[in-house]
Amino acid sequence: MSNNKGYQWLIDKSSGRADDLEKHRDWFREWQPAMRRQLSGTKLERLTGDQFSEILLEMQNRWSTLARLKTRLASPRTWPTTHNAFLVLADEKQHLQDRLDVIKPPDGTLPVPHLSQAVITAFLHLRYPEKYCIWNGRARKGMKTLGLWPSFPRGATFAEKYLLINATVLKCSRDTGLSLPDLDILWWWAEEDLQDSPLNPQEDPAGLEGGLRIMQERTKRDAAIVRKAKLRWSDGNLVSPACVVCGWAMDDVYGDDGFGFIEAHHNDPLGNSNKQRVTRIEDLSPVCPNCHAILHRSGKSMQELKSVIKANGMAGF
Question: What is the pLDDT of residue 226?
Answer without folding.
Answer: 85
